[in-house]
Design brief:
Number of strands: 11
Largest sheet: 8 strands, antiparallel, barrel
Structural class: mainly beta
Strand content: over 45%
Order of helices and strands: HHEEEEEEEEEEE
Number of helices: 2
Length: 196
């Protein structure tokens, strides 16, 4: 009887102790979308590029697209994205490069404390350096428009999805894909300006 009482007391103490614990769930949203897009702030991040290896053709591919922008007014930022890519295959390599300045506007309509919709326009240049080929260098103008969604997971970090239409005058890769319609995902950090 003494053992049964001891086991019951331990079970009750464990049950009430476990119920009293605070469970902290991971943060998946933050209410800071209004402060992040104010005049004087900075936007720094990168598009999540592709990386891959094709075993059948022995081809390796990687793309990196860092970007930075400055908020010239509330909701409006001017910046640039750098495109760097490498494709190594049996018989040669292809290095892709480019810079595309962009203007981005975060719409106050439909905004919420945890997310913002935005539109952007970009104009720049991109090129390709193909070794072991007659096409030693190709440079082309690049322009495009896009619409996206920024979901704030912390007070200054947002996950972004964007649908873009990009046009180029040459058959070269631009950022996350060839010229045309593309979908991209990125991580952006919104840094407060020096006055904040």
């Amino acid at each position: 009887m003494k053992h049964l009482f001891l086991v019951s007391a331990c079970f009750l103490a464990f049950t009430f102790g476990a119920a009293a614990q605070d469970v902290t769930l991971p943060q998946v949203t933050s209410s800071s979308a209004f402060e992040a897009v104010q005049k004087g702030n900075w936007l720094v991040g990168a598009g999540i590029g592709s990386i891959g290896f094709n075993f059948k053709t022995d081809e390796f591919n990687i793309d990196v697209m860092p970007d930075a922008a400055y908020f010239v007014s509330d909701n409006a930022a001017l910046g640039a994205e750098v495109q760097l890519g490498l494709r190594a295959y049996d018989g040669g390599t292809n290095f892709r490069y480019g810079i595309t300045p962009f203007a981005r506007y975060y719409f106050p309509e439909g905004a919420a404390p945890t997310h913002r919709w935005f539109g952007e326009a970009r104009v720049g240049v991109a090129g390709s350096s193909t070794k072991d080929s007659d096409e030693d260098a190709v440079v082309s103008s690049v322009y495009g428009v896009g619409a996206g969604y920024a979901h704030f997971i912390t007070s200054n970090v947002a996950l972004e999805g964007i649908l873009r239409y990009t046009r180029s005058h040459a058959d070269i890769d631009v950022g996350s894909g060839t010229a045309g319609l593309s979908v991209g995902v990125g991580l952006q950090i919104y840094l407060p300006g020096s006055s904040r």
